[in-house]
Amino acid sequence: MGVLVGTTGQTIERRLLEETRAGHTYYPEPHRIFASLHDLAPGSVRVVILGQDPYHGPGQATGKAFEVQRGQSSPPSLRNIKALLARDMGHLPAENFNIGHWSKQGVLLLNTVLTVRDGEPESHQSFGWQSITDQIIEVVVRDVSPTVFLLWGGHAQKKESLISGPQNLVLKAPHPSPLSAYRGFFECRHFSRANQWLTTHGVPEIQWGSVE
Question: Which contacts (CB < 8 Å, 24+ apart) does range 156-161 have?
Answer without folding.
Answer: 156/50, 156/51, 156/52, 156/112, 158/112, 159/50, 159/112, 159/133, 159/134
